[in-house]
Amino acid sequence: MTELHLWLRHEDRDTERRTPVVPSDARRLLAAGVTLTVEESPHRIFPIEEYEAAGCRIAPTGSWVSAPADVVVIGLKELPDEPAGLIHRHIFFGHAYKRQPGAEALLRRFAAGGGSLFDLEYLVDEDGRRLAAFGFWAGYLGAALAVLQHRGRLKAPLAPTSKAELDETLRPAAGDAEFTGLVVGALGRSGRGARVAFATAGVEPTCWDLAETRDLDRPALLAHDVMVNAVLATTPVPPFLREADLDDPGRRLRTLCDVTCDVGSPLNVLPVYDRTTDWTDPARRLREEPPLDLIAIDNLPSLLPLESSTDFSAALLPQLLEFGVGGPWGRGLDRFHQAGRELGIEEGESRHV
Ligand SMILES: NC(=O)c1ccc[n+]([C@@H]2O[C@H](COP(=O)([O-])OP(=O)(O)OC[C@H]3O[C@@H](n4cnc5c(N)ncnc54)[C@H](O)[C@@H]3O)[C@@H](O)[C@H]2O)c1
Fold this sequence. Notes:
- Belongs to the AlaDH/PNT family.
- It comes from Streptomyces pseudovenezuelae.
- The strands form 2 sheets. Strands 3-2-1-4-5-6 form a 6-stranded parallel sheet, sandwiched between helices. A 6-stranded mixed sheet has the order 8-7-9-10-12-11.
- It is of the alpha/beta class.
- α4 runs parallel beside α6.
- The chain has 11 helices and 12 strands.
- Nicotinamide-adenine-dinucleotide binds next to α4, α6 and α7.
């Protein structure tokens, strides 16, 4: 491996307590000869002292902007708006390859500075499978929040918690009415997480994946009390629910959690709502009679920062140890250049080839 200097940055969003590299994995990176600088970050779930004890260099919050040009800056979510030109190689979720709001502006910042983006969503093996993802915990939380809402126990606003605390509220209590659950996309990462959370809540859900939705049985879907949608749609399919289904007086469905959150996309399988919900107001009533509540939160894993960071970091570690120009990182870089070309962005002089 070439000499790698990783720079773990502070996350700008103050609700974001997750990190892509946890202290125990920082120790492993150092042992393998990687240089690791960690920025101080008041809301990161792991205190800076744990990184210091592991032997990392410590740097002030946001100091990556003036770090040497050859460092690879690593984080999870969006960068601050400054500097206008990005000179470094960055690893994070850029959400910039599907023409999302702000995508072009971000890619132009890279072009202006000559830096590059290794988007974590596009860190894939040769079969296109994601190598590090938060899906399991998204599904776990999606099902957990849906169960709590259904039992009248969901407390707002939501705040980051631990799995032990969450599970305590999830376990069935005396007097809880029985109900049926459905997980769609049950074979995926989020789907697995949803099934585990349902099990903790004492519910054995019906599990559907591609085979079960090919010829969709909507009456069967509507006969469940709680539904968690965890599909990753790649081609358009008929919607799982339409407005008319919500108006069906025979509908049993009372609580719908859309982990997928493809609202506004042509691939959306639940075109029955027009905006996501959030930590302040996690559930929104879609129908009064009979009632139907929607949960559609797009940053679910941030609610379990310790567990989700630990799993993500463990999956990312082997890739970081192999950081280089080929393999998954090479594919990620190709995808970055392709996105720029699609937007007609002139690539500046790249400093890193
Ligand atoms: N809300 C959040 O905070 C959050 C966080 C992470 C991921 N996600 C989203 O959750 C979704 C699932 O992610 P994942 O990591 O579990 O993906 P995954 O690829 O591991 O699993 C997706 C599953 O959906 C199934 N599927 C696809 N189309 C289907 C269809 N028409 N009918 C039935 N099943 C179908 C696939 O066969 C697969 O088993 C993605 O859209 C992802 O962006 C949301």
